[in-house]
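Schema walkthrough. Field components (list of strings):
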Amino acid sequence: MAITPPTERIWWNLPIAKVELAWIIIAFVWGLIMFFMMVYWHGAGEQNLSNEAYRITPEQFAAKTNAMVEQYTVRDESGYAVVHPPAGSDVYLIARLWQWWPIIEMEKGQSYRVHLSSMDWQHGFSLQPINVNLSVHPGYEMVVTMTPDATGEFGIVCNEFCGIGHHLMVGKIYVVE
Amino acid sequence: MNATTIFRTCPSTGLKVHSSAEKLIKAHAVAAVVFLAVGGLFGLLVALTRWPTIHLLPADWFYLVLTGHGLDVLLVWIIFFEMAVLYFASAVLLNCRLATPLAAWIGFWMMLIGAAMTNVAVLQGDSSVMFTSYVPMKAAPHFYLGLLLFAVGALIGCFVFFGTLVIAKEEKTYEGSIPLVTFGALTAAIIAVFTIASGAIILLPTFLWSVGLISNIDTLTYKTVWWAMGHSSQQINVSAHVAIWYLIAAMLLGARTISEKVSRMAFLMYILFLQLASAHHLLVEPGISSEWKIFNTSYAMYLAVLGSMVHGMTIPGSIENAQRQRGFNNGLFQWLRKAPWGNPAFAGMFISLILFGFLGGISGVVMGTEQLNLIMHNTLYVPGHFHGTVVAGTTLAFMAVTYLLVPLIFRREIMFKKLAQIQPYLFGLGVAGISVFMMGAGTLGVSRRHWDITFADAIMGFDYPATAYLMLAANGISAVLASLGGIIYVFVVVSSVFFGRKIGANEKVMDIPAPAAVSHYGSATKISIPGTAVLVAVFFISFVLYYFVNWKYLSDVWPLR
Ligand code: HEM
Ligand SMILES: [Cu+2]
Ligand SMILES: [Cu+2]
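Field assembly_structure (string):
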């Protein structure tokens, strides 16, 4: 029994039951399939997380964001600049206690290199209702190329706990034709 | 040492029980239950706050209580109980004296003081940083200090366990190899040493940083090392609760594992492969290569998952085999129908096994897939998943074994037997609900650790679909059920331990059935467990379907490169 020493002293030489062996093989093959699925998706799938990231200071990142905002702001909305950078360009999004800044307007079907970094603590970029979730760190700039495939208004919810204002930290992305 | 005065012989099992070991097991179990009670109450408050129509606590209290909940249940309850399991699986099962009881007591007090210190820090209100305490969010210094004390105390406990194994071997208190349950506990203890070392490596500098001696801690390094502790500690839990599944199946039904070799290999997989799998907590972090992520989540994780899938067959299989030998041979499932469902130890164990596999196991593998993590990371799906593993799995298994520990170690009869009987069902149902509905809300994008999904006070908001609100309400109702189950558990156990009828020194409280004859040489290949094979097939089909459904979900989101 499991609470007493094995009765067969040489238990490691006993044969393995057929059902058990079959299950081990099935489970192992399933593991292989799941492994190749990830590799396969890197080639064939459209949703893969980029590995592109750089070390950066909050000041440097803020400077790049400000340059973009100065150049491409199209209007103002509840105190937030709304920027409309050209299709295919680099877009910067600042995460800080407790806002996503600025509001970004993109064109449907176009690709953008979205740069994410934090000015202070860790934050979580959670694009809704698409439900894409990324971690945003201070000191690291992550670059993700996104291609919005539907128009509308999208929310950016912070989903990494960042203190008492965590639930107030919501940003916006517009996708237009 | 005078061996005759410090041992008693257990009339039910025939095991020699060292009185110091017994006292330590009691102390750790009692401390565990106290923290479960506190932490479980916190959990209820959290769930009621996340239920939008009730929205019980204000924001600051919500984050405070959530921090306390994670710490008290995930760390304190589980690790205290695990220490009791380690001492039981070494000293008691091996008929041995416990190595250095004094050191074990020092470890106990360090854990207790540490846990209390961290709780005080949290309740003082300036350490609402969640149990992950990601830098640069800062808690009070005694928050980290308490955790460090707790960890070192637990480490001492692990070494007392190892020492006991050595003594047992030298004094030849058992013959041949250690029992499977002890082997499982050994797995847990080895992983614990690795885990606690990682914890110390990251918490020590964090403590120094909190008192101003270190100026900066890199956020990504912190997360990586923190999860080397945070993830492998989950593997301690799995090893420990799987060992308990085997223990309960053996004590109640005489079940004997189909193959010692396979079961032990499966435990070994946990040690060999799970440490690196902590990568699955880092799948959407910046600057970590896909190659590294895939390697660590597949090579490392799937082989450990293989270990769990093997136990998932061998445990019901050994029960089926034992029951069939007892004559429950009709059809596929008579063995299961005629199992002792009225015994809370068995019911708890079996429900724990099923929920762990179907809810916690499948969702864990899905979420740990590199690309699929993109649509789940940090949503409520995550707590949904681990309430399937660590609550429905580990916690329920620990509750189940308590119904055996109270008569055997505390030597008190369980009181309120009827209440005890329904407890595993009530708790299991509630936790299954918590798990499923949080996963449901997470699939709809609801964030974890979030006070207000209506964003009433935010400058800009976002409207979640009505189903998300429904999920949170259903989660709240399930939380009430689970809490009732938790309260009954604490009530029954505490009353029995203090007021239950004392069991006489020579009184038998249970008959350990004669072991089922399985692994005698030659018979192993002929073993027949068709019912278990069907259960496993159902599990496997659900797994495969659910896995590919999630790839379908992923393929619908914006293209990302
Ligand atoms: C009555 C029983 C319980 C209820 C009602 C409950 C409910 C909850 C809820 C609603 C959350 C919050 C999710 C969020 O907003 O992010 C949560 C988080 C959590 N629960 Fe439980 N829970 C219970 C028992 C347990 C037990 C026994 C454990 C561990 C063994 C546990 C471990 C955790 C952990 C680790 C978290 C995450 C905390 C964090 O995100 O920092 N829970 N629980
Ligand atoms: Cu944030
Ligand atoms: Cu946040």
